[in-house]
Specification:
Rossmann fold, 13 helices, globular
Amino acid sequence: MALTKLLSFGALLSLTAAIDPPRQPRQPLGNGERRLTYNETTPTALNRATSQTVSWISGEQDGSFVTVANGSLVLENIVTGNSSVFVAADRVPEDYHEYWISPDQERVLWAVNYTKQYRYSYFADYLVQDVASGETTPLVADQVGDIIYAEFAPTGSAIAFVRGNDLYIHDNGEVSRITENGGPDQFNGIPDWVYEEEIFGARKTFWFSPDSAFVAFLSFNETGVGTFTIPYYMDNQDVAPPYPRELDLRYPKVGTTNPTVQFNILDVATKEYSEVPITAFSANDTVVGEVAWITDEHSAVVYRAFNRVQDQDKHVVVDPVAKTSEVVRERDGTDGWLDNSQAIQYIGSISGGNSTGTYSNSSSDSYYIDLSDESGWMHIYLHSTSGGEPVQLTSGEWEVVAILKVDTARNLIYYTSTEHHSTERHVYSINYATREKKAIVDDTVDAYWSASFSSGGDYYILSYQGPDVPYQEVYATNTSEPLSTLVSNEALVRNISQLHLPNITYFELSHPEGFTLNVMQRLPPNFDPSKKYPVLFTPYGGPGAQEVSKRFQTLAWRAYISSDPELEYITYTIDNRGTGYKGRAFRSTVTNHLGRLEPQDQIWAAQQLIAQNSFIDAERIGMFGWSFGGYLTAKVLEADSDVFSFGLIVAPVSDWRFYDSMYTERYMKTYEQNPAGYNETAVRKADGFKNARGGFGLLHGLGDDNVHYQNAAALVDLLVSEGVSPEKFQMMAFTDSDHSIVYNGANAWLYKYLTKRLWDEKQRKTDLVEQTHQWLKKRSLVGEQ
């Protein structure tokens, strides 16, 4: 029998009343003398904070979840304290990548034989395991690692899966093929590359109705979408083949044809599906960003449609039986862009409260919630499924970051927000009937929190993520004291106590135009303000992103370069205009000109810090950035401000015309609408690179399917053709590496190179003549050709 008694609940969950030692509202400094070493932080930190991911499951008694312990799947119950083997270790597939538990807890779905595809998607074989017997059977008898995704229905025995870009239903041992047209240019129930990367951030686009009677699914057709060819020179072989494998990737670039999207409804009983035409925008001007059932059974499903440049959206409610649709909500965001929050959740009818009379208490009226920044700040709104103006539930000059749980039994929404500060996250609840708000954690203390709630909403795992060492505790929603500690990271706390760490602090710089920039500063151990220190700026800077946060960041590579006595860099991370969680106006100011204000803000901030701090060595100020951060670093050097002496540029965009349409046009509009913006923000001037006193490095993966190597190639051509000296410029292309640059040890090499460049910069003499190689001094060789 699978559910045998394993051990007491306390053996896995420490029954500590409160975390020990108590965490402080700052990044830890350590109490020892030893400094961090390279291998402790890069590329895989040896001292890494751990966390536990659990799968909450429904049952007669709330508070049950499954986790992995000693190779087994273990079923825990917070109420009873029981802990039982759910699937014994010898029944767990050795090479599993993920697992899912059926809602009735009778089966486990295992993904094995994993092969990565893009950022989120992968191919695998799937096994269905009977929990009682432990026996597994293939989901499909002839599978050969070619299933893209599979999922249990919320009720009953059905499993939906995608193979060969077609949607299938597996039920009671029988497999039914739903679509017949799947192929290289037709995707059913899964996104194509651009929808996976930029819209859904996920690998599936089908959704069962709550009663499992219907499936809403999207289909994508890539006919006419441009192809970008990516060569793989090694292709996971020990010896390179004579001809590289080439991936012909459908990748829509700015102003080119986008994939078209189709909305479908499948009747699970009949295995028949119907298209429900999308009429919110024209076919070539439509992006579908979200689909959610807004019913307890199957009466209504809503999708969010954007226009191509994503500055208008519409909520469209579909009747899956009648196959009709109606627009119930429209919004214009042409002052910037509209984020695809993917936050719609159904709450049903509302009982109790409503003192303002802004919604109905009738059981025949139903509602859903969503996130919107139409007030200027991202907040929770209550929508009627039949349309009308939404009701704003939260308000203030702060932002709701995520909706964690909707507890319809208590009329509660749990969420995280930036109410205390934009760099922090605290957990709150709000009663959507009475609008009574409650802090679940102490929101007067600097911290970064999240939470995971049980199926019934009676219990939650509270995750402290910084600034001190992370931990996790288990709570009941009706008490304020923890029931137990799930993860304490005690060993990491002890290890840190033996170190002497950099001092990380946070502050704001007030800009004369009326906004502030968040700053994270890291000072070396034994910092002496009378000395001069080299500086490295480490921004990301992209729209809606955030790098300056109070997550635990003590043991990153930036900490090593600050700790090593031969380096001792001060690092600054600054979130420029356009970044997230500081309101719509702060974000949208970069609309139509990505790359104009961001480098201005970084340069201005550097100038302010130099003026305020005599310990900064103004001759040695560099910037390191990856992806958008690499682009920002290139734009800072291009600006030729004489502030930054060197740059480390990894996987950058160099011209927004080269990047994908759905990301770029959201912020820049189309090239036809905004040619001046595109031309201004491309990296096309070489003088700033020529004048970088410490030079610069450019690194890119040849197998990058996201930011294509084309960007680096065009930048190299500019720099070479404009006569940038090889004394200033170093270039590295990484064979077969994608955007993360990890193939075959590339990541370790990359960070060693970055570290060496920082050492070189610190040793650089300020006399440029001494630093120039003798043969470059000969006039006949300078600028030849």
